[in-house]
Amino acid sequence: METVVFPFSSKFLLAKYLLVFALFISAKALIKLPINETIPAVIVFGDSIVDAGNNNDLNTVIRCDFLPYGQDFAGGVPTGRFCNGKVPSDLIAEELGIKDIVPAYLDPKLKPQDLLTGVTFASGGTGYDPLTPKLASVISLGEQLNYFKEYIGKLKANAGEEKTNFILAKSMFLVVAGSDDIANTYFVLRARKLQYDVPAYTDLMVNSAAEFVKELYGLGARKIGVFSTPPIGCVPSQRTLGGGIERECADDYNVAAILFNKKLSSVLNSFKTSMPDGRFVYIDVYNPLLGLIQNPQKNGFEVVDNGCCGTGNIEVAVLCNKLSPSTCTDVSKYIFWDSYHPTEKAYRALVTPILQNIIGDFF
């Protein structure tokens, strides 16, 4: 077979064409930013929804660095993500064209260059209530802030102060917490029920959330998105624990979530006046996830009230392991991976439209 030899100019033009074509193809899949705007990194705080392995070396039962977790992740490797594949922080970074995954800050394999495009400090089982991480033996939001301060120091050492300030001012900061406070600390363990009714407990949560956002702002963050709590009463484990014999959605859990979300949205809106150079974005996940649960067929799902791992009724974290007799033969039909966390497919169905709706609020 005769080899075709391109002259230098032809090879250069071909390479240029292929590069332009590749950029065109990838750009079609990305969220479009306003002209002359950029998001250099995604920096994440919170709980198991966005934990990528920070709990792996903790002495806690809230961990998942073992199969079947990660079975659909690259290479089928469990990373400490509470999912069969990618989690929302990964998908957001992917949609923004920043990188494929957002690594855990405590990952021993983390490279200095990873810091430039963002990490997650999140710890499964944590919450706004300072009691929540203590009960679960995980990393509190206060400790996550301390790691963030350490991260800033490393950024300055690697990239210089000017680039560090640019990254802090332009990056997307995401905070995802609250569901463990409501589901575990308040309703399941009843650790706060004698002290607080639901309105008072949601006040405690929102005051903590507000202080956390203010501290992030004080450290240089300017584009801060805070996720609402989901319809936590509709996840499989809470149906089992609080939904009665028919395992319906636990209404009292959802009422608390709605009340907290209303207060959170209001306080974030108030920051626009007190900190006008910041962007404080309330990210509603309650209604999109509830819509997915109520109308699963629209996105190709069939099972809404069980997880894919084990019986699907209660297994999560250490209870969802390779010895769990799985009832799931096709993950793509399930909204939930374990009894608490959605599948990657469900996250994808949620993240893209949510991001498209709120991206303009960051500018």
TrEMBL record:
SUPFAM superfamilies attached to this UniProt entry: SGNH hydrolase
GO biological process per UniProt: lipid metabolic process
Keywords: Membrane, Transmembrane, Transmembrane helix
InterPro entries hit by this protein: GDSL, GDSL_lipolytic_enzyme, Lipase_GDSL_AS, SGNH_hydro_sf, SGNH_plant_lipase-like
One Pfam family from the record: Lipase_GDSL
Protein name per its UniProtKB record: GDSL esterase/lipase EXL3
Transmembrane helix in keyword set: yes
Molecular function terms, GO-annotated: lipase activity
Statement: the UniProt record of this protein carries the keyword Glycoprotein: no
Transmembrane regions: 12-31
Membership in a protein family: Belongs to the 'GDSL' lipolytic enzyme family.
UniProt organism field: Gossypium gossypioides (Mexican cotton)
UniProt cross-references to CDD domains, sorted A to Z: SGNH_plant_lipase_like
